[in-house]
Amino acid sequence: MYQDPKYLEAAKRAGDFLLLAQLPQPQPAWAQQYDENMQPVWSRAFECPAVSGRESQSMMWALLRLAAVTGDKKYLQPIPPAVVYLRKSILPSGKLARFYELETNKPLYFKRGPGGKGHELTYEDDRTASNYGWLWDPELDLIQAAWQRIHQGTPVPGFVQSKAAAKPPTDAEVADIVAALDSQGAWREKDGDRGVMRDANGKKTTPPGGVIYSETFVKNVQTLSAWLGKQG
Fold first, then answer.
1. Which of 49, 161, 171, 224 is 20 to 30 A from 21, comparing alpha carbons?
2. Residue 40: what are its φ and ψ, rounded to 5°?
3. How far is Cα 31 from Cα 50, in angstroms, rounded to an integer?
4. pLDDT attached to residue 3
5. Residue 229: per-residue pLDDT
6. Are 48 and 121 in contact (CB under 8 A)?
């Protein structure tokens, strides 16, 4: 974006850290947080030393984008073993656990402590605390496909492969975004899983007014900003 090499160098240093942070076999993925000796450690009361299914996928996407921008395939090397490991770790439900126990690879969860206070570590997912995402959809097919394209030197849709400007949004796309705004200036989602949230008791509910996602807000504002820039 800024065409300044110092930002690319900073991104490369971040990528080099991710290479170092990958855990060894038989769990070659990433933890959520590390100490100064690069060992997985506790963070919040419900964030234990573990392999993280969600964050590992995020790390692979970051490495893929870095490989696409730099052309340096060293950032691709950690991904195949991580994908193999995570495929073996998919639960019978088809989901990835947020946390896998070090060494045993058992999925870990937290439930509320006595009186609803504190958190207790457990192997059972039937009474998990509702303030966290314990299960996540695997993105491994998409990650593997992107890895293959970048490895072969083929552009990946949605990735910034070079300094070339991304395709600007069309007038029709912008019109759809503006039309989706409600009277209060918000984008509300009411259909499918996007219209569901959890109430104070952790039960899924469908608010009649829909759900406002910051993710959708950011995406739409970015699109509108790109369109406005094109007008100038």
1. 161
2. -60, 140
3. 6
4. 80
5. 82
6. yes
Nearest CA among 188, 178, 227 for reference residue 211: 188
CA neighbor of 122 nearest in space, from 94, 101, 95, 92: 101
CA distance 210 to 44: 31
Residue 136: which of 90, 168, 186, 102 has the closest Cα? 90
pTM, 2 dp = 0.70
CA distance 183 to 123: 46
Reading the block at residue 53, the tokens are 């299914």
* Tokens coding 31: 């933890």
With a cut of 50, say whether residue 76 has pLDDT above it. Answer: yes
Q: What is the mean pLDDT of the chain?
A: 89
Helices first, then strands: H and E counts in the chain: 6, 10
Query: Is 145 exposed, middle or buried (CB count within 10 Å of its CB: 0-12, 13-18, 19+)?
Result: exposed
- How many angstroms separate the CA atoms of 207 and 219, rounded? 22
Distance CA 224, CA 177 (A): 8
Per-residue pLDDT tens digits for 134-178: 999 999 999 999 999 999 998 887 775 444 445 778 999 999 999
CA 81, CA 106: separation in Å to the nearest integer? 19
Does residue 22 surpass a pLDDT of 80? yes
Rounded Cα–Cα distance for residues 33 and 47 (Å) = 9
Predicted confidence at residue 164, as pLDDT, reads 42
